[in-house]
């Protein structure tokens, strides 16, 4: 294995594990998750819907041909989470010491790097043929 493939594998594992780990809290209606989504006015459907979307994103990140798509979706989801931490939730949520905020940033950065590394896989139209 090359250094690039090892780095890519690590960059896939980190956000996927973070996303999959938080599913337990979303799907089990953990008090912290319920609090977050009540604060946002999205409980319970936002919590469950986002959990399903995060599961899809984690799977897409693991599949080499769809890593770019999963990472791109991850950027949007984590960008939204970071924005909501700044605007409605605060960096610290229910005395978590900023853990959720930090995990959102780690996932966001990994996804940005993955999109960059897999940019050649992103389908695009070539309008020069027109």
Automatic annotation (TrEMBL):
Q: Which residues cross the membrane?
A: 45-63, 68-86, 98-117
Alphabetical list of Pfam families matching this protein: DoxX
Localization per Swiss-Prot or TrEMBL: Membrane
Superkingdom to which the source organism belongs: Bacteria
Q: Which key words are in the record?
A: Membrane, Transmembrane, Transmembrane helix
Alphabetical list of InterPro entries matching this protein? DoxX (IPR032808)
State the annotated membrane topology for this chain. Multi-pass membrane protein
The name this protein goes by in its record: DoxX family protein
Taxonomy of origin reads: Bacteria, Pseudomonadati, Bacteroidota, Flavobacteriia, Flavobacteriales
């Amino acid at each position: 294995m090359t250094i690039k493939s090892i780095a890519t594998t690590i960059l896939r594992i980190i956000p996927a594990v973070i996303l999959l780990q938080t599913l337990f809290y979303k799907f089990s209606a953990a008090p912290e998750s319920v609090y977050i989504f009540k604060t946002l006015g999205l409980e319970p459907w936002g919590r469950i819907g986002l959990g399903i979307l995060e599961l899809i994103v984690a799977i897409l990140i693991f599949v080499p041909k769809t890593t770019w798509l999963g990472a791109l979706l991850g950027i949007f989801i984590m960008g939204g989470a970071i924005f909501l931490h700044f605007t409605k939730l605060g960096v610290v949520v229910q005395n978590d010491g900023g853990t959720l905020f930090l995990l959102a940033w780690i996932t966001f950065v990994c996804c940005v790097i993955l999109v960059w590394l897999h940019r050649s896989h992103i389908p695009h139209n070539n309008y020069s043929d027109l």
